[in-house]
Automatic annotation (TrEMBL):
One Gene Ontology cellular component annotation held by this UniProt entry: plasma membrane
Protein origin, superkingdom: Bacteria
Organism, scientific name: Actinomadura physcomitrii
Domain (Histidine kinase): residue spans on this chain: 226-422
Main location: membrane
Protein name: Signal transduction histidine-protein kinase/phosphatase MprB
Transmembrane stretches, start-end: 7-28, 142-161
Keyword Amino-acid biosynthesis: no
Keyword Flavoprotein assigned: no
CDD domains: HAMP (cd06225), HisKA (cd00082)
One example GO MF annotation: ATP binding
Name of one Pfam family that matches: HAMP
Residues of the HAMP domain: 166-218
Amino acid sequence: MRRHITLLVASTVVLVLVAFLVPLALLVKDVARTRTLAAANVRAQALAPVVAAGDRGTVEVALQQTASSGYPMTVLWPDGKFSGAPADRDAGVRLAERGRSLTVDTPGGREILVAVLGGRGGTAVIRAFVTDRQMSAGVGRAWAILAGLAAGLLAVSVLVADRLARSLVRRITKLAALAKGISTGDLDARIEPGGPLEIRDVTVGLNELAGQIDALLSREREQAADLSHRLRTPLTVLRLEAETLRDPAEAGRIGEQVDVLERTVTELINTTRRPVRAEAPCTDATAVVAERVRFWSVLADEQDRRMDMRIPSGPLLVRVRAEDLSACLDALLGNVFAHTPEGSAMGVALEARSGAVYLTVDDAGPGFPGRHLLRRGVSTASSTGLGLDIVRRTAEASHGSLQLGESPAGGARVMVRFGVPPRDAEPS
C-alpha cells in the first residue's frame, strides 16, 4: 500500500509538471527569440536616420560602432554597392527595395530588413542578420533550471507522500495486528486511536468489539461454569450411594467412575473459565491414547468386546491440549459402547503421516445411517448429538478435520486428523 500511494502521488505530480512546464518551456523559447529579434530591429531602426542622410562615411562609422552588438549589419545602397558586412541581394532585399520593411527566414538565421526611403538615387535597405544560435541563447540554461525545479518538486512530493503513506501503513498494520489478536482470542488487545478520521473510527470500533466479545464470553463462561457446578450435587449423592453397596469391589469400581466423572466436571469448569487463547499442544499423544484405551478396556472386557490398539512406540506431538485429545477419544469410544451391540469388536489406531497425526476408531457395529450425524445436536439414538461435533470442532481447531466412513468389519470408522504445531509451540 505504501508503494502504491507513493507511485500514485509521483504519477500525479509528473502529470501536473508536464502540463505546466512544457508550455512554459515553449514560452521561454519564444520569448528569447522575440527579445533577440527586437534588439536587432531596434539597432537597425536606429541606423535608418544616418542612412537617410546619405553620407556613406558616417554610415561606415556607425556600422563599426554597432559591430560589437553581435548582429552583422549591412547597408545595401540603391546603386548596387553596400556598406558593412557582405550580403547578397536576395529576394527579401529586393522586396525591401520597394519600400517595405520585413523579416525573412533564411538558412541559419533570420534577416531583418528595414527600407530607408527618401535617399538620393532610390531606397536603401538596412539588413541585420540574427543567427539561430543567437535567438536560442539562454534557452538551454532556462530549460535546465526548469528541469531541476521539476526534479526537486517531484523528489519533495515523493518524500512527503512516502512519509504520509508510511504513517497510514503503520496505523493500518496496528489495526491488522489488533484484528489478528482478537481472532486468536487476545481480547485484552487494544490500540490507541489515531491517524485519519476513518482509521480512527475503525480503531474505536475494533476496541469496542473486543470489549463486547470479552464481556459476552465472560458471561457465557460464568453461566456454563454455574451449570457445571450444579452437577457436583448429584455426583456427591452418587458417591454416597456407591459407598452403601455391600460388594466392596463393585463399590470401588463405581467410586472410581464417579471420581473420573468428577474430574471431568472439574475440567469442564476450568475450561469454561479459561480465557480463549491459543492452547499449548500435547507433546505425547501416544501416552494419552494408551491411557484412555486402558481405561475403556475394563468396560470392553465386561461386554466381551475385542479391543485392538495400534499406536507408535514413541511420543507424537499434536496441536491440541492433552485434555482435549482425551475428551475426543472418550467421546468416540463412548459412542461405540452406546450405539453398537455388546460383543462388537472395536479398534483404536494412532499414526503420523503427511505432516499430521491421525486418530482412527473402528467398530463392527451397524455403521452410520448418514453423514448428517456431523450436524451439531443431531442424533439417531437417544443422545445429545454433540459427541461427534465436539470431536470435529477440536480437530478443526488444530487445523485438522473429521472424516466418517466404513470400517473393514463393516461398521463405522471415524478418522480424526490433528494438525502438528510449529517448532516454537510451548509444550503442555
